UniProtKB/TrEMBL annotation:
Catalyzes the dehydration of methylthioribulose-1-phosphate (MTRu-1-P) into 2,3-diketo-5-methylthiopentyl-1-phosphate (DK-MTP-1-P). This is Methylthioribulose-1-phosphate dehydratase. The gene is mtnB. Residues 11-200 form the Class II aldolase/adducin N-terminal domain. Binds 1 zinc ion per subunit.
Length: 238
């Protein structure tokens, strides 16, 4: 019988963080990645490490009772509370990835409210949405200085309103996904980044004008969500 050795899940996180760093999504120590283990504990990236050059020692293990373990007394990610709350809310989640991309921050300003309507792109199927012309919303949370407040807001909102997609935005901060495996979490990040890139590009060429993304007129969106043409016309009138 062939003996299979299970790979250390930190190796997958190291490879993914390196790739996301190369994409410009985890620069300057930004972002954090975690993976849940069968005993209910999870490995999370240590705080303040360069995500482009992580090693097996750059992780902290967080146990369900709150105890922590790291080979060299590193602090866990400053955003550990968000990962904890997502694993508690979504028992099927086995990995949780958070990155800071330029596009995630730009689209978080497309609306002034607390939900971002998405264009009905085919890519949404990769996030589990099998509908014709889907109306999808990503919840946007306020970027409180106290991470525990962001975690509380996430907990409260998703307890009342179930998540439509395994994705949330923190305004002017970044995007977070949760998924049933590290491989899916990586795909989810790539998919939402594609959608955000599309939205920024569409706004740049004025396509938003003809869009009714998520059933909402672009005109109902925030200052940046207004089409370039609308902004130019309004500014000419000043
Ligand atoms: C570039 S600082 C970014 C941090 O404040 C935070 O938002 C972040 O994503 C990384 O924090 P970390 O504690 O390294 O996990
Ligand atoms: Zn962050």
């Amino acid at each position: 019988m062939i003996q299979q050795t299970l790979a250390d899940p930190r190796l997958e996180l190291i490879a993914t963080a390196h790739d996301f760093y190369q994409q410009g999504w985890m620069v300057g120590t930004a972002g954090n990645l975690s993976v849940l283990l069968p005993d209910g504990s999870f490995w999370i990236t240590a705080s303040g490490r360069s995500k482009g050059e992580l090693s097996l020692n750059d992780f902290v293990r967080i146990y369900p009772d709150g105890k922590q373990d790291s080979s060299n007394n590193l602090k866990p990610s400053a955003e550990t509370a968000i990962h904890q709350v997502l694993y508690t809310l979504f028992p099927q989640a086995k990995a949780c990835y958070h990155i800071h991309s330029v596009e995630a921050n730009l689209v978080s300003r497309f609306v002034t409210g607390d939900s971002l309507p998405l264009p009905p792109l085919e890519m949404l199927k990769g996030l589990g949405i099998y509908q014709e012309n889907p109306h999808c919303l990503i919840p946007i949370f306020t970027n409180h200085l106290q991470v525990s407040q962001i975690a509380t807001d996430i907990q409260q909102r998703f307890t009342i309103t179930p998540a439509q997609l395994p994705v949330l935005l923190i305004r002017d901060h970044g995007v977070t996904v949760w998924a049933p495996s590290p491989e899916s979490a990586r795909n989810y990040i790539e998919l939402v980044e594609y959608i955000f890139r599309y939205m920024v590009a569409a706004w740049g060429v004025g396509i938003g004008e003809m869009g009714r993304w998520g059933g909402r007129e672009m005109g109902e969106m925030g200052e940046m969500g207004k089409t370039r043409e609308t902004r130019e016309i309004r500014e000419m009138g000043r």
